[in-house]
Amino acid sequence: MQKEIALVYLVAGISSRFLGKIKQFAPVGVNGETLIEVSLNQALLSDFSKIIFIVGNKTEKPFKEKFRDNYHGIPVYYATQFYDETLRDRPWGTTDALCSAKPFLNCPFVVCNGDDLYGENSFKILADHLMRYKDCASIGFKLSKVLPEQGKTNRGIFQSDKNGYITDLKEVIGIEKPDLGKTFNEDTLCSMNLFGLHPEMLNELSLILAQFKEKNKGERKAEALLPEDISTLIKKDKISMRVYSTPDSWIGITNPEDEEIVRRKIAELNN
């Protein structure tokens, strides 16, 4: 019997770099598909049983208008990440977003960013893992493939044991191309926020989130970030998580000018 697995998208935020536009709706596919539709079409080849969009104050209405309650025969649900705009400048981060969807998550699930393209195989690897094993999993992309040609960026770097189980996921600030071959090698794997999780894990994340909010209750910008909190649970032996490499390439949009780059890369993949 096929196991139910949910597909969860983090789509609560609108990037200021997009001047108030929802970048997931940028038309980048060869037939005019939006960025989120291209991602969905890649993911749904893995036979997910339902789709959950974690939306925000400004993205809830447009996502519900576009997808309603069904996408290509797959039921669609919505969880809203709320925050008090009189007390906060932004939501409480990706851990808070995921915990907002807890009522919908009674089965294993894959969670990812809604403005990244991960490739068909990446989703299949995680879906297969969740069907076969009780522990969690993530996809590691080669650092050399996800660095900008110029400038610096931040990436979560995986450390794992000889069996492929993660021992640490550490955010490294200001990585650039010249660091390859020095601080990092060509095969260093990094996280692009693509995880296969079991619903029991949400109880542990909820505890971490509650502690974080209490500690930072006077802060307007502090965010509980999912990779950091997953790393905390791993180091405390609360969960075990395996990291898999993938033959797919990650494609993402950071700035509006990246839209054309993504269109070109998608066209190349289809040739």
Structure description:
It contains seven helices and twelve strands. It has 271 residues and is of the alpha/beta class. It has one domain: Spore Coat Polysaccharide Biosynthesis Protein SpsA, Chain A, CATH 3.90.550. Strands 1, 2, 3, 4, 5, 7, 8, 9, 10 and 11 form a ten-stranded mixed β-sheet that branches. Strands 6-12 form a two-stranded antiparallel ribbon. Strand 1, helix 1 and strand 2 form a beta-alpha-beta unit. Helix 3 crosses helix 5. The longest helix has 15 residues.
Oligomer classification:
single chain
Count the DSSP helices: 7
Q: How many E strands?
A: 12
Number of domains: 1
Strand-pairing-aware structural class: alpha/beta
Q: Major sheet, described briefly?
A: 10 strands, mixed
> What is the N-to-C order of secondary-structure elements (H for helix, E for strand)?
EHEHEEHEEHEEEEHHEEH
> Which descriptor suits the 3D outline?
globular
Just give the CATH class: Alpha Beta
Low-confidence stretches: none
By CATH, the superfamily comes out as: Spore Coat Polysaccharide Biosynthesis Protein SpsA, Chain A
Helix content: 25-40%
The pLDDT mean sits at 93
